[in-house]
Design brief:
disordered C terminus, CHCR, single chain, coated pit, two-stranded antiparallel sheet, mainly alpha, 683 residues, 2 strands
Length: 683
């Protein structure tokens, strides 16, 4: 019914009712649009501004609520009012309809949103469409962005005539930035116009290069007159096979020493070697020719015209960078010119080095005379390598000369790096210097002995010179195919107190004696016990017996008896037990000598006195057997039991447990009876 009321009624507040219609609770968008359109008509209001306001509100309903841009466009065409077009243009911009928005803003003659319009136009790449808008905007606004974007639009549409006319006229565009932008995007014709307008000849030359206008590029480079531009134009002409133009630019570039290498590299990469040599030969005639030109020409001769090298070195020696030319000669294997330059420059070290590295310049007597005079000791080591490689039969003579001047460890390392044959060649030399006990020398000789399977010499070397990595040698020999070398491995482990490794190696080779000797040397009860148990497990009875005998001092008797009992080795532990008993006996003898009692007469007097003090044999006193003497006692005693009260033995002279004072409790009497009790004596 709302629509019919809107048509029938006229006396209501249009704006309030329209707002109620578009509210979220009603969403009567069509009715709101009808209200605004109805009250925008002349019969409802004669105020033009109010009519336009109602039309803009009606457009707002279409674009903001109904989102019907096609209907909005139709409505805008009907009313054809600028504010309405502006409202539509903003809505179209929001919906990314840049082309339609541009037309709407043009119809509205509204440039207020020029920043957004330019951004959307660039994103949509609609440069032709944006040009009219930018022209319209420039009528009322003087902004850098407008002029810059207009130039860019002309460039993108290839409208070069209008572009040139515009940049030559008054504008506030940033020509340099837009020129760089066009150049980076490959719009070289437009860039050429822009850079020419601001006299940027360096960039202008690059534009000519990309447009293959090489003569114009050289002319622009001449106006720019900076080495970077000369170089770029030179390389471009060279790639286009414009050799004369390239040479013109190249002569300007090689005046600067820092850029000579770039010219050489580019010519060389393109394979124009003859033109490169010709360019530097022309450069010799420059007024400001520098040392780099003479040096680089010498280097080029070594690569491409070797027959001219010696003459060039002799004529222009004072203008050369000797080190660079020498390196070039060496790379080209032109050693005579290299030696000539070294000698002229008084570099004896370098001359010797050249002779040591290159056989064509070698003279043995001269070399040996010069080698001891060099200031750099490194050259001596290089000489060693040279003799090993080129003159191995003269190596011994060289080392006789250098014996007091070199580090022998380093020489040995050189021999090692050269190869096994070099170590063999230097064996006599290494034996001579082994007296210094150097690790490298010892290791090298040991390796030679291993290679030659000379285990006797190896054993002697290990015994005499032990300054080397013994564990590494032992590990290496542990898997050697020859038994004697594996035994040496076990021996080395033993020398380094690696008892378990040594014993394991000897076990694997069934070298039982080595196992036993190692275990004995270790003096470790656990190691020895493990070996004994191993012999029991492998039923090596004889070895078990030998281990007991050899390691006697470190084997506990209970361990030996236990293993013998468990494995039935009673006969095999008997030597150990005999030896143990003998040792125990000897120890007791020593103990008896230390604790020997007084002489026999003194002992009898002491015993008589002691027995007399006992006061009879009653009340638990010491009783003697009937008719028996005191066997084992000096002099004996009357036999039989003595009646009470007829005397006895005084025990005050005895200590604890009835032992004479001075004897330990439970100790041994001289006759060997325990507890201090003589034979035939009872309590």
């Amino acid at each position: 019914k709302v629509a019919s009321y809107i048509d029938q009624l006229d006396n209501f507040d249009a704006k309030d009712i329209a707002l109620i219609c578009v509210s979220e609770s009603h969403m009567l968008y069509e009715e709101a649009f009808t209200i605004y359109v109805k009250f925008a008509k002349p019969e409802h209001t004669t105020d033009k501004e109010e009519q336009i306001e109602m039309q803009v509100l009606a457009m707002g309903v279409l674009v903001d609520y109904m989102k019907d841009l096609d209907r909005a466009k139709t409505f805008a065409n009907q009313v054809d009012e600028k504010p309405v077009w502006s409202k539509l243009g903003n809505a179209q911009l929001e919906e990314k309809m840049a082309a339609d928005a541009i037309l709407s803003f043009i119809s509205a003659e509204d440039a207020s949103e020029y920043v957004r319009v330019c951004a959307e136009a660039n994103e949509a790449e609609i440069y032709a469409e944006v040009i009219p808008f930018l022209k319209m905007a420039r009528k009322n606004l003087q902004e850098n962005l407008l002029d810059t974007e207009l130039i860019y639009a002309y460039a993108k549409t290839n409208n070069l005539t209008d572009l040139e006319k515009f940049v030559n006229g008054p504008n506030v565009a940033n020509i340099q930035n837009i020129g760089d932008r066009c150049f980076s995007e490959g719009l070289y014709n437009a860039s050429k116009i822009l850079f020419k307008s601001i006299n940027n000849n360096s960039k202008l030359a690059l534009c000519h290069i990309h447009l293959e206008e090489y003569r114009e590029a050289v002319a622009a480079a001449s106006l720019a007159n900076n080495v970077s531009t000369w170089k770029q134009v030179c390389f471009a002409c060279l790639k286009a096979s414009e050799f004369r133009l390239a040479a013109t630019c190249g002569l300007e570039v090689i005046k600067y020493p820092d850029h000579v290498d770039d010219v050489v590299t580019t010519y060389s990469d393109l394979g124009h070697f003859d033109h490169l040599v010709s360019l530097f030969e022309q450069g010799l005639g420059l007024e400001d020719a520098h040392i780099g030109i003479f040096t680089e020409l010498g280097i080029l001769y070594t690569k491409h015209v070797p027959e001219k090298v010696m003459e060039h070195c002799k004529v222009f020696f004072s203008k050369l960078n000797v080190s660079k030319v020498v390196r070039a000669c060496e790379r080209a294997r032109l050693f005579k010119p290299a030696v000539y330059l070294y000698m002229q420059d008084k570099q004896a070290d370098s001359a010797v080095k050249t002779m040591s590295e290159h056989s064509s310049a070698f003279d043995n007597d001269l070399f040996l005379d010069a080698i001891v005079k060099v200031r750099n000791a490194e050259i001596m080591y290089k000489a060693v390598s040279f003799y090993l490689t080129m003159h191995p039969m003269l190596f011994t003579r060289l080392m006789e000369v250098l014996e007091d001047h070199v580090d022998h460890s380093r020489v040995v390392n050189q021999l090692r790096r050269t190869g096994d044959w070099a170590l063999q060649l230097g064996q006599a030399y290494m034996k001579t210097v082994q007296k210094e006990n150097l690790s490298a020398v010892n290791e090298a000789l040991n390796e030679l002995y291993i290679e030659d399977e000379d285990y006797e010499s190896l054993r002697k070397s290990i015994d005499k010179f032990q300054n080397f990595n013994m564990i590494a040698l032992a590990s290496k020999l542990a898997t050697h195919e020859l038994l004697e070398f594996r035994r040496i491995s076990a021996y080395v482990y033993r020398c380094n107190k690696k008892w378990s490794q040594s014993i394991e190696l000897s076990k694997n080779d069934r070298m039982w004696k080595d196992c036993i000797d190692t275990a004995n040397e270790s003096a470790d009860e656990e190691t020895i016990e493990d070996l004994l148990r191993f012999f029991c497990e492998t039923s090596e009875k004889e070895c078990f017996c030998a281990a007991l005998y050899t390691c006697f001092s470190h084997v506990r008797p209970d361990v030996a008896i236990e293993l013998g009992w468990l494995n039935g080795y009673h006969h095999f532990i008997m030597p150990f037990l005999v030896q143990n008993m003998r040792q125990t006996y000897e120890r007791l003898q020593v103990l008896e000598k230390r604790t020997q009692p007084p002489k026999e007469e003194d002992a009898q007097d002491q015993i008589a006195q002691t027995y007399g003090q006992l006061g009879g044999f009653g009340n638990g006193m010491l009783m003697l057997e009937n008719g028996g003497g005191m066997g084992g006692m000096p002099g004996g005693m009357p036999g039989g039991m003595m009646p009470p009260g007829q005397g006895g033995i005084d025990m005050s002279g005895f200590g604890q447990a009835g032992m004479p004072n001075g004897m330990p409790p439970g100790g041994m009497m001289p006759n060997g009876m325990p507890g201090g009790m003589p034979p035939n004596m009872s309590m």
